[in-house]
Automatic annotation (TrEMBL):
GO molecular function annotation: nucleic acid binding
InterPro entries: HTH-like_dom (IPR025948), Integrase_cat-core (IPR001584), RNaseH-like_sf (IPR012337), RNaseH_sf (IPR036397), Transpos_IS3 (IPR048020), Transposase_IS3/IS150/IS904 (IPR050900)
PROSITE patterns associated with the record: INTEGRASE
Top-rank taxon: Bacteria
Integrase catalytic domain: residues covered: 107-270
Name the UniProt record assigns to this protein: Transposase InsO and inactivated derivatives
NCBIfam families attached to this UniProt entry: transpos_IS3
UniProt-listed GO biological process terms: DNA integration
Signal peptide interval: none
Organism of origin: Nitrosomonas cryotolerans ATCC 49181
Length: 276
């Protein structure tokens, strides 16, 4: 009678009763706290309330973002904050550059259609370690990576070769980068030509033209590098490799992908194609 009077379905009423009982159930409350601790620790304390809520929802816990915030505050779980880093790109060279074919079109319909690449640096007690990456824009997956003590053309070429070996992209793939001398080198341009790829470069001094790669480097440094003190380049290489392959590609929830990991997003897309 009350449900009819207030125009609420019986199922909605009983769902409300169940959720309210769960909220005040001490064992359920403690279990949520334990799970939030596990999620925060596995993400190296990089997940905020939005991602923790999505992770809880994914494993069957229907909780609001407000409650997640409250539980995080109660348990002292805090998100690590990002430091600022300087750019490494050297565009002051006389080598030829590609036109901006990508033009900030970061939404891609399928895998292996557009890759973006970039270089960053990591400090160790042995000196700088340079990291180059290649990202598939469709899934934001890191499909190629390379690290070296020297920021030479060979670094970006080997990184792209790794992506080619892993993914076997077809002729016509667009490969976008900034105007750094490594990407303008004869070796790199020859690699693109030999594989039938289309080169693309950001406009001079415009980091937003390669925002996806810049965003990944920001996440890597915020979530892992800035909290480490690498004694050797080898130590940094192993830690970064673990971050890319074991965390970022496999488990990190990406807001652009509807809070799925790159691997999960690609797997679900492949299933959709088979069904169709």
């Amino acid at each position: 009678m009350m449900c009819r009077l207030f125009r609420v379905s019986r199922s909605a009423y009983y769902d409300y009763v169940r959720r309210r009982a769960n909220y005040f159930d001490n064992s359920y409350h403690i279990k949520l706290i334990d799970i939030i601790f596990d999620i925060a620790e596995s993400s190296h304390y990089t997940y905020g309330s939005r991602r923790i809520k999505k992770a809880l929802n994914a494993i069957g816990y229907t909780v609001s973002r407000w409650r997640v915030r409250s539980l995080m505050k109660e348990t002292g779980v805090q998100v690590r904050h990002r430091k600022k880093y300087r750019l490494t790109t050297n565009s002051n060279h006389k080598q030829p550059v590609f036109d901006n074919k990508l033009n900030r079109q970061f939404d891609v319909a399928g895998p292996n259609q557009v890759y973006v690449g970039d270089i960053t640096y990591i400090w160790t007690q042995e000196g700088w370690l340079y990291l180059a990456i290649v990202i598939d824009l469709f899934s934001r997956k890191i499909v190629g990576w390379g690290m070296s003590s020297r920021m030479k053309a060979r670094l970006v070429c080997d990184t792209l070769r790794m992506a080619i070996w892993q993914r076997r992209p077809q002729i016509g793939l667009i490969v976008h980068s900034d105007r750094g001398s490594q990407y303008a080198s004869k070796e790199y341009r020859r690699l693109l030509k030999d594989n039938g790829f289309i080169g693309s470069m950001s406009r001079l001094g415009d980091c937003w033209d390669n925002a996806v790669a810049e965003s990944f480097f920001g996440s890597l440094k915020q979530e892992r590098v800035q909290w480490k003190s690498y004694q050797t380049r080898y130590e940094a290489q192993q830690d970064i490799l673990q971050y890319i392959s074991m965390f970022y590609n496999s488990y990190r929830l990406h807001s652009y992908l509807g809070y799925k990991s790159p691997n999960q997003y690609e797997a679900e897309a492949a299933k959709m194609i088979k069904v169709a």
